[in-house]
Amino acid sequence: MHRVFLALIAFMGLAAEGAAAAERVDLELVFLADASRSIDDGEIRLQRRGYAEAITHPEILAAISSGYERKIAVTYVEWGDETSQEVVVPWTVVDGAGAAAAFAKDLLAAPRIAFGPNAIGSALAAAHALIASNAIESTRQVIDFSGDSAYSFGGVPIYQARAAALAAGMTINGLAVLCLTCDGRPIDYDLEAAFTELIIGGPGSFVITADGNASFAEAVRRKLLLEVAGGPGAAPSGRLAGLKVR
To answer: What is the three-class DSSP state of 112?
Structure first.
């Protein structure tokens, strides 16, 4: 009994030490980007460039600085099959232009490391674990999922990973990528509707569409602005065109 009591005291001390060490931010955000076999190396670069431009955009930096803590934490993960969920840039606290530029530089310089057919549920589960295991605290936790398909081939079932993230209080938003290197709608089903039904969820969750090279960076920026602001309900007037909100 005495040993158990001492162990409990030691555990409580470690927990308190961990809580004291945790950094407080307004938002924990996982960029969960599609790097499955349908995405070629050129499209990987296009996606990364879109996120790099978004995180360094003055409008995004202004939104970050308007939060209570005036900073957010972001990590960039590319996903492929059930064994391939790869952290491209680890958790980074963005509290101004310098930190945003460093994140963008690391993102653009990293090699491609994720491959294989879609395992969307495994990707969501990996993002959930990254949020749950970090030394950061926030009032909002968001998984920013992007993909060109709602099909999943093995790994953790989507419904299971989604339910676990939502039960933990996280929000999942979607960027439906219809085509990165063309204009139009090459797939034969409503990708945004599939994302809404199967993938996104949580407070203020939404889907935004990118349907070509020219629109991708703009879509990422609009999506990030909504996420930093706290969802569609907190967005500036006129920012909701093209969204599907759950």
So the answer is: coil
**Structure confidence at residue 18 (pLDDT):** 46
Residue 131 CA to residue 28 CA, distance in Å, equals: 7
> What's the pLDDT tens digit per position in 97-144?
999 999 999 999 999 999 999 999 999 999 999 999 999 999 999 999
pLDDT at 230 (0 to 100): 83
DSSP 37: T
Which of 85, 90, 141, 143 lies closest to 116, judged by CA? 85
How many other β-carbons are positioned within 10 Å of the β-carbon of residue 30?
A: 28
Q: Poorest-confidence range of 98-107, 204-213, 218-227?
A: 204-213
What is the radius of gyration, based on Cα positions, of the chain? 18
CA 212-217-222 angle, to 5 degrees, is 110
Q: Which phi and psi (to 5°) does residue 175 adopt?
A: -115, 105
With respect to CATH, is domain 20-245 assigned 3.40.50.410?
yes
Q: Which of 96, 90, 60 is nearest to 75 (CA)?
A: 90
Q: Percent of the chain, pLDDT > 70?
A: 80
Relative orientation angle of helices 213-229 and 58-65, to the nearest 10 degrees: 10
Q: Which two tokens stand for residue 91?
A: 């958790």
Nearest-10 Cα torsion for 169, 199, 55, 148: 170
Q: Are 223 and 242 in contact (CB under 8 A)?
A: no
29, two tokens: 């955000």
Longest Cα separation, the chain: 69
- Two tokens, residue 99: 């930190």
